[in-house]
Write a structure and sequence with these properties.
By secondary structure, the chain is an all-alpha fold. The protein has five helices and no strands. The chain is flat and about 75 Å long.
């Protein structure tokens, strides 16, 4: 196996385990007392850190088994796992139109207007082009050096 395959595998496990454990903790907290959701991050953040450390160690052990990661490069396993988790976690918020929901909009271009708003259907205007004019424009465009 290659090191990136191993990191993606353990990053996927991290994401799945974190999502499932977060949902279970939220359900238990809601069953106990709905007002205690204020303290949810006091539980979820240390849990995420523990899971991140656990899966990073597992990925480093598997990288060492295949002699793929040596020396100070082991810290890059941690960074790759964290980046992969971040991209998976921010993907649902990137599909929404609300760019303020996360900082994921830094990776994607932002359009202020929808494409349908930019296209104007003016049937009164005569923007039709004949085949001869089209061929002439193509020849002129491709004949330039």
């Amino acid at each position: 196996m290659e090191k990136f395959e191993i990191d993606i595998k353990w990053g996927s496990y991290l994401f799945i385990v974190n999502v499932v454990s977060s949902i279970c903790i939220i359900l238990v907290i809601c069953l106990i007392d709905i007002n205690s959701l204020e303290y949810l991050y006091n539980i979820l953040i240390p849990l995420f850190v523990l899971q991140l450390i656990y899966f990073t160690v597992k990925a480093i052990i598997e990288n060492n088994k295949y002699d793929l990661s040596k020396g100070f490069r082991k810290i890059f396993v941690f960074v790759r796992l964290l980046v992969f988790y971040y991209l998976l976690a921010m993907f649902p918020s990137a599909t929404t139109n609300d760019t303020n929901s996360s900082i994921f909009f830094l990776f994607l271009p932002y359009r202020k207007k929808d494409i349908s708003e930019l296209i104007q259907d003016d049937s009164n205007e005569e923007d039709e082009i004949t085949l001869k004019e089209f061929i002439f424009k193509l020849k002129r465009k491709f004949s330039r050096p």
